[in-house]
Amino acid sequence: MTTENNNALFAKGEKLTNGYFTGDAYLETLLQKDKNNNFVMGAVTFEPGARTNWHTHPKGQVLIVTEGEGWYQEKGKPAKTIKKGDVINIPENVEHWHGATANIKMVHIAITNYEGETNAVWLKPVTDEEYHEANK
Amino acid sequence: MTTENNNALFAKGEKLTNGYFTGDAYLETLLQKDKNNNFVMGAVTFEPGARTNWHTHPKGQVLIVTEGEGWYQEKGKPAKTIKKGDVINIPENVEHWHGATANIKMVHIAITNYEGETNAVWLKPVTDEEYHEANK
């Protein structure tokens, strides 16, 4: 389902059903990898409570939060609040997750660099316990 | 001068005084080139009437318009309107300019790829005649 919102920067895009997300998340692809751009770029909408699985990027990823408020957590560290206007430069091969807070929707642009043909390695879901710990 | 605007996605940043822009344009740097990201990323604010010089990028550039409305023109082609939410994938080595319309401010994120240590080749200013032709 594609939905439009005149107040939003981008269309909401397609609901993600790839098994790498918990809750309702949507992807609007903005740019595919090509000969100049060694990354894919998309706008990801996380409804309240929605988050990625734990995952890594072999060549890192840049997030630009364009709406709302959410969480970014690297394994073994406390979750950090991220909000509209924030830029997060995620290092290579660091296990992490990102998503909305329990009560506030978040939208971010994701610029995901490639190493060869790979840009992400997906791991286990963020459990409700892990997520509630962030939202305490 | 750095100014903040609570409604805007990013800070307005520093006024550009490098001679590569006509009118009042501002840059908020969002990310520097590093080992994972072979690009620099910034938010550029063009007040009405402001525009870049003609220029090229050896490895292309991606623009994401986050506010307002402006122009993008490649040499020898008509100027195209660009507006909030648009993504422009600028090819390598194509002479072009971008900027606000005569009456509407524009803000865009610019993701500028590097070829070696170079990301742009700056050329002549866009004359008032060229700019008014776009705004007809």
Automatic annotation (TrEMBL), chains A, B:
Residues 44-104 form the Cupin type-2 domain. InterPro entries: Cupin_2 (IPR013096), HNL-like_cupin (IPR047263), RmlC-like_jellyroll (IPR014710), RmlC_Cupin_sf (IPR011051). This is Cupin domain-containing protein. It comes from Pedobacter petrophilus.
